[in-house]
Design goal:
This protein is an alpha+beta fold. About 20% of the residues lie in helices and about 45% in strands. It has a 3-stranded antiparallel β-sheet, with no helix packed on it. The protein has a 3-stranded antiparallel β-sheet with strand order 4-3-5. About 10% of the residues are buried.
């Protein structure tokens, strides 16, 4: 039997929308780190996990990375993925 293919969408607090898929993997949460560098630039790191605990477990590693890389500050966010059978529609501006 073929695995169910679906699209997973995350919407962060600032309105950014990330779609993953099609995938058969059981991902449940999306995490994102926005690192603010000394030169005023930013770097973004992201991923998806199979549980909320796995996603929030990255908090300690993120704090270590901030110290090692000299980030001025960082924002760490975890949001739940929303599943759909079809890809989201693209809106043109």
């Amino acid at each position: 039997m073929a695995k169910k293919r679906r699209y997973l969408t995350a919407t962060t607090a600032d309105g950014y929308v990330k779609t993953i898929g099609p995938t058969a993997s059981p991902f449940t949460h999306y995490w994102r780190i926005v690192a603010y560098l000394e030169n005023g630039r930013t770097e973004v790191f992201w991923g998806h996990t199979r549980s909320l605990g796995e996603a929030t477990g990255k908090t300690a590693a993120t704090a270590d990375a901030a110290r090692q890389r000299g980030w001025q500050r960082y924002d760490f966010e975890v949001v739940e993925l929303v599943e759909s059978a079809t890809p989201p529609t693209k809106h043109s501006s």
